[in-house]
Amino acid sequence: MIEIGDRLKAGAGKVFSRLRGLLGQRRVILYCDNPIFLRKTEAYADLLRRRGFCAEAHFGYNADTKALIKSANALWVIFGGRVIPPARMPKNYIYYVADPIDQHRKHNYVNEEYFQVLGKARQVWGYAEINRADIGRLGLPFFYVPFGYAPHYQNSFRRHLGYKKVQQDIDVLFFGQLSPRRHEMLERLKQQGLKVVVLGAGCPAYGRQLDELLARSKMVLVIFYYDEKEPQTRVPDFARTDHLLSNHIFVLHETPAVDYEEHGFLENIRCCSYEDMPEVCLHLSKNPEERTQWAERGAKWFKVNYHLDHLIPYDALREQIGKMQ
Fold first, then answer.
1. Which of 19, 43, 135, 238 matches a 20 to 30 Å C-alpha distance to 79?
2. Contact yes or no for 54/21 (Cβ under 8 A)
């Protein structure tokens, strides 16, 4: 869970940032309404501050958010803003698309209200190129901004663990929403005798609690929500693994669809098919040196190829701030 101390520090940072805003510098507010994106908004805010922006992370649609929307002289970057009603959205915002739009439309997750919000954005950022065509049809500028490495991920992880030596007593950790195929695989792994910990809607973990479980785990498993009939959803899951790869945590990833392989992904991130997963998990649970080699290789590749400081469109962001009235 999010610790009180961290909340106090965040609150103090927001007060300082707002004071600067009152003095005339326009702010960037990184906003999310889902706790799984909270650490991401903090990572983006940290990088923006390093580049001279007056930036802060903000979580949840509450009284403070409503007051900020009404009064803030700010450009918002919204990671999934469906909780904010379209009529209440900030005047100036960038929308970050964190899911495949086609897939959401197919499964009725996307409605007219969603596109109303998208259509009023100054820019759209997206984690995957597969959304570019949909955004282009709306006549909006699209920037490919995949989830990537950021120093904040390492700093928060180290702060949460301190200097404790953690024993790896969990064979497989999975976190995310369960689907039938995910549930089936996790049950198969348990039947193999592996110790499996599942974090989902009924048993979530964030912040320090999640980091302690990550440190205790031999591997973190990525299983696609949908089967092979949904290839557009079977892309490298950086939304789940950015924090993990930034901290040299070993990830076993279900093999992505061929059409959506990222350059170098299969060579640097340990992947396997759904059918082979039980055998591979059992093998890797008994081979710490192999896990370490893959973890180090993946972390190095991720930092070089997906460093957020090289991916955030800073110039376009400054241009939008300059256009604000």
1. 19
2. yes
